Amino acid sequence: MDKFFYLLSEGYRSLWRAKLSTFSSITTIGVTLSFVGFGAMATSNLARLANESRSDYTMEVFFTQLTTDSEAQKIMNEIISMDRVREGILITKQEAAEIFQKEFGENIYDLLDDNPLPTSCVIKLEESGLEPTEMEPVAKAIEAMDRVEKVSYPAEAITLIENYFQGMLSVVALISMAILMGTTVLVSNTIRLTIF
Questions:
Q1: Sheet order of strands, 148-152 included
Q2: In DSSP terms, which residues pair with 62 in a beta bridge?
Q3: Alpha-helix runs per DSSP H in 55-154
Q4: For the chain, the helix, strand and coil percentages under 3-state DSSP, each to the nearest 5
Q5: What pLDDT is recorded for position 18?
Q6: How many angstroms separate the Cα of 100 from the Cα of each of 66, 92, 93, 103, 121?
Q7: Residue 121 β-bridge partners
Q8: Could you give the CA distance from residue 32 to residue 180 in angstroms, rounded to a whole number?
Q9: Secondary structure (DSSP) of 134-151
Q10: 108-139 as b/e, with b when 16 or more CB fall inside 10 Å?
């Protein structure tokens, strides 16, 4: 027990003798932990933003002109049962005409005798862990289905978002590692100087 108190008192005496180096070591460690904490917070926020943008990943599936609404509904149900697909919203020819009128302020029936807009559906994909490369096989599988004319999705925009996200994560990780390594060197040198 006496040995413990002796070591404790010697430790306090050493700290008192090397006040400046002790203070600088503690300050350096505190600042480093703050920077690493900010880095972790930035990474967490980036991950949250990426997941929010992933929840908006959609594909629009256009059916052939001769496809009826009930046939389109059946095909959409098949698509929804596929891996990586979360949900689907059917847009009938009539609903497409209403959307056209809202967006362009023109009634399609005033411009043309018949509604040329195809029946379509909007497919929402799973956001968790979805890579841009995983979207292409889903799109090709849907495009290969009977009565599907075209599958449209913003592949370039999605790739750009994912690349920016990965780049930002790499930058934050590199900065955090550099700060930790710098702090380790600084504190170990300060301790060495204090001892000698």
A1: 85-91, 120-125, 58-63, 148-152
A2: 120, 150
A3: 69-80, 93-104, 108-111, 132-143
A4: 70, 10, 20
A5: 67
A6: 20, 12, 10, 5, 15
A7: 61, 90
A8: 7
A9: HHHHHHHHHHTSTTEEEE
A10: beeeeeeeebbbbbebbbeeeebebeebeebb
Q: Can you tell me the distance from the alpha carbon of 140 to that of 148, in angstroms, rounded to the nearest whole number? A: 11
Amino acid found at 191: I
pLDDT tens column, 25-49: 778 778 877 887 888 888 888 778 7
Residue whose pair of structure tokens reads 């009565």 in the numeric block: 147
User: In the chain, what's the furthest Cα-to-Cα distance?
Assistant: 102
Write the single-letter amino acid at 136.
Answer: E
- State the pairing for strand pair 148-152/120-125: unpaired
Q: pTM for the complete prediction?
A: 0.62
Contact by Cβ (8 Å): 179, 29: no
